[in-house]
Design a protein that fits this description.
The complex is a heterodimer of chains A (114) and B (113). Chain A has 114 residues and is mainly β. In chain A, 0% of the residues lie in helices and 53% in strands. Chain A is built from no helices and eleven strands. Chain A has strands spanning 5-7, 10-13, 19-24, 31-38, 42-50, 53-57, 64-68, 74-78, 87-94, 104-105, 109-113. In chain A, the strands form two sheets. In chain A, strands 2, 4, 5, 6, 9, 10 and 11 form a seven-stranded mixed beta sheet that branches. In chain A, strands 1-3-8-7 form a four-stranded antiparallel beta sheet, with no helix packed on it. In chain A, a hairpin with a 3-residue loop joins β4 and β5 (42-50). The termini of chain A are far apart. The mean pLDDT of chain A is 93. The N and C termini of chain B lie far apart (36 Å). With 113 residues, chain B is mainly beta. In chain B, the strands form two sheets. In chain B, strands 2, 4, 5, 9, 10 and 11 form a six-stranded mixed beta sheet that branches. Classes of the chains: A mainly beta (114), B mainly beta (113). Chain A binds chain B through residues 4, 33, 35, 37, 41-45, 48, 50, 55-59, 88, 90, 92, 97-100, 102-108, 110, and chain B through 1-2, 30-31, 33, 35, 40-45, 48, 50, 88, 90, 92, 94-95, 97-106.
Chain lengths: 114, 113
């Protein structure tokens, strides 16, 4: 099976712009979670989608949003970019999001905001 | 905010030596998992230990969990240069929306050949 894929892998934006990142989960996986990784804050949970519904959300401002499509592919959007949004954005998929489920991570999208 | 605190922050050892990393957490958990990350890439799942388990082995990995102390340790035996990476613990806690994963700050391991 193909792994989790994320596009684009690298992105440079300027402050005030918006960005959309895409994540394709492993075939058959219905849960997709998004994480932000920065040197200062580490890995932080953004949100989780299951069957096109946001099921869980971290402590991020409303500028961060996401959605999931019927094929389980997910996108996250960041509007009005700030310098502090520069980070590695990781998505992870699992069959469901039960407590024994392993999450499989994609390679990440590295976003640089100038 | 981070739930897990890991120590040491960085660890440098020689090939063949054992590496031990520790993780502490704050709230009740359903399970604890360890992940490896190479050079800012995606995370690779290593091992999951349930809250009712005390020890688990997988190849050269040994994980312990002490829920009374809210701590876990990861031991890598007979380390190899290829083990050089960052290691993160992650806890799954159930909330109204499902499960939320909280990662520790990570330990950077350097294995010298």
């Amino acid at each position: 099976k193909a792994g989790v894929t994320q596009t684009p892998r690298y992105l440079i934006k300027t402050r005030g712009q918006q960005v959309t990142l895409s994540c394709s989960p492993i075939s058959g996986h219905r849960s997709v979670s998004w994480y932000q990784q920065t040197p200062g804050q580490g890995l932080q949970f953004l949100f989780e989608y299951f069957s096109e519904t946001q099921r869980n959300k971290g402590n991020f401002p409303g500028r961060f949003s996401g959605r999931q499509f019927s094929n389980s592919r997910s996108e996250m959007n960041v509007s009005t970019l700030e310098l502090g949004d520069s980070a590695l954005y990781l998505c992870a998929s699992s069959l469901d999001r039960g407590d024994q489920e392993t999450q499989y991570f994609g390679p990440g999208t590295r976003l640089l905001v100038l | 905010s981070q739930q897990g605190e890991e120590d040491p922050q960085a660890l440098s050892i020689q090939e063949g030596e054992n590496a031990t990393m520790n993780c502490s957490y704050k709230t009740s958990i359903n399970n604890l998992q360890w992940y490896r990350q190479n050079s800012g890439r995606g995370l690779v799942h290593l091992i999951l230990i349930r809250s009712n388990e005390r020890e688990k082995h997988s190849g050269r990995l040994r994980v312990t969990l002490d829920t009374s102390k809210k701590s876990s340790s990861l031991l890598i035996t007979a380390s190899r240069a290829a083990d050089t990476a960052s290691y993160f613990c992650a806890t799954d806690a159930k909330n109204t929306g499902g499960f939320k994963t909280i990662f520790g700050a990570g330990t950077r391991l350097f294995v010298k050949a």
